[in-house]
Every structure is written in structure tokens, then in C-alpha cells.
Amino acid sequence: MTKPRIAEPIKKLMAHRFRYKMSDSEFDHQLASMGWNEIGRGGYSGVYANKKKTYVLKISDRYDAGYEAYVKLIHNYKNVHFPRIGDIKKLRIAGKNYYVHLIEKLIEFPYRLGEQIAENIDDAIGVLEEVPRNKIDEQLKEYFGKAIPKYIANDPPMKEAIWLIANSPGSNWLDIHGGNFMKRKDGTIVITDPYS
Fold first, then answer.
1. Are residues 27 and 75 in the same domain?
2. Complete DSSP assignment for 27-92
């Protein structure tokens, strides 16, 4: 993914939101008029998609230490199971900070499948905390036995991603649930936001 930039109209809209005291619904309406529709909302941010774009906007009105720890991890360790992140902007508007991330557009899993993946990866994270990197396979086999999910057992980059998440500074903010696992068109599982 080439690194897209946050468009000037989005920056201007963010400034207008504060200046004209737009409500969340007015802001969402203005974004929708530009082709950006809300597709999700978490505790700190809203996520917006545009049918013409290959990325989504994640707009937060406060600093999210867990997500920023994950962004740092992604930039330090390239892994196919981490999302591709483009431009990141901290916008200071009338004394208030906004954080805008451009993230590759992904596909949701059906609810039950997403929850099953989350449960297995959450278990694997727990098993791999404070485990030396060279003991990953041994620890996973000891915990899961022959029931280790194929998408973990047969995928060294997935094992590496899980180990990194379990042993990085953000791990004290773990937030593992089905909504934080998505996939690319080729079926690759992407861990979107494992820290709260």
C-alpha cells in the first residue's frame, strides 16, 4: 500500500467541527457528504470508510495509549498479520488534540468465527507472555496439543505476531475480542487493535 495522505478537506472539516461546535451527528453528516461513512466506533474513536478508497480513517478525540503502543509495534516489526498504516496526524484544533490514522481497508469476519479466532489467539498470547522467542513452538504445542488451530500452527508470521503482542510494552492493555480481527481479500488474518 502506498502511504496515502490525510486530505486537506478532512483537516479543514476537523477544524470546522471545533470552531462551529458541531455535534457528533453533524460531523458524521459532513463526513458522509464527502463520501466517508462511519463503520465502527470504539471507546476512543470512530472509523470511517469511503467506497472509493483502499483505506479507512480512524479519528480519535483523545490520546489512546494502547493503540499508539500498537502503532509503534507495527512500525518497528513488519508482519503480514499487522495492519498497514498510512499517514498519521495529530491535529491541534482550538486547544484540543485529534488523532487521525489512515489504515488499510479490511473485511470483517462473521461474528462467531471472529470470536473463535480471538479466543484462540488470546489463549496463545497468555501462553507466550514472558516466553523466550526460541520457545514459541514448544509452548504452543504444550498448551494446545494437537488441537492447535491451523492458522497458528502452520503460520510462523502469526506465531511471531502473537509473541510480539504478548511481549511488547502495550501488553498491559490487552483487548482481545472478535471485532479486533479482520482479513484481507486473500484471507490473511489481520490483528487490528489488540490493546485498549
1. yes
2. HHHHHHHTT-EEEEE-SSEEEEE-TT-SEEEEEESS--HHHHHHHHHHHHS--TTSPPEEEEEEEE
